[in-house]
């Protein structure tokens, strides 16, 4: 959930500071090599939403991809998701985080990497692209992935089903997350 909370924080409307366009492209890789120059790019998604020209949409999409490749994160402004929707998601996430581990881990645990659905506890995911089991185990021990997430996808997918806590355990959680998922696709 911490991963979701951090991601949602990035979705809040941010003031768009004036950055030269080139800093949002491949030259960002030069900046992230040093702690003193590291920054997370701010990308104004309204340019994607407002434009009909494929070239402009592609430029914004490239900025996002480059930000993830080079810094690992982006701040997305101008996304159009209403603040009250984001606030409601934050509220449900905070309630989810205090549920007992038996509910989070046992009832809705992520169990199939192909599905990518459900609760992922701290240290579960790997921090490498390696497929060597021994290397992955060593990395999980020495440098575990410290994020905790609850991952969902299309709720109508009949093959890869979402996993939800029982309504009695987390009232309104499913409805809130599905609403947020839908709003993000507009």
From TrEMBL:
Highest taxon in the source lineage: Eukaryota
Protein species of origin: Boletus reticuloceps
Domain (Non-haem dioxygenase N-terminal) ranges: 40-167
SUPFAM superfamilies: Clavaminate synthase-like
Protein name as catalogued: Non-haem dioxygenase N-terminal domain-containing protein
């Amino acid at each position: 959930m911490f991963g979701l909370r951090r991601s949602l924080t990035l979705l809040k409307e941010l003031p768009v500071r004036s950055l030269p366009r080139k800093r949002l492209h491949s030259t960002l890789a030069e900046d992230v090599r040093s702690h003193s120059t590291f920054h997370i790019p701010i990308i104004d998604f309204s340019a994607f939403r407002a434009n009909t020209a494929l070239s402009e949409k592609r430029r914004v999409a490239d900025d996002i991809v480059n930000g993830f490749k080079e810094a690992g994160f982006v701040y997305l402004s101008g996304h159009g998701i209403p603040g009250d929707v984001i606030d409601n998601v934050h509220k449900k996430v905070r309630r989810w985080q205090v549920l007992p581990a038996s509910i989070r881990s046992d009832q809705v645990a992520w169990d199939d990497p192909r599905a990518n659905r459900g609760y992922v506890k701290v240290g579960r995911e790997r921090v490498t692209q390696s497929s060597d089991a021994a290397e992955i185990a060593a990395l999980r021990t020495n440098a575990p992935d410290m994020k905790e997430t609850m991952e969902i996808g299309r709720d109508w997918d009949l093959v890869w089903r979402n996993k939800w806590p029982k309504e009695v355990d987390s009232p309104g959680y499913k409805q809130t997350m599905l609403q947020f998922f839908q709003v993000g696709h507009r």
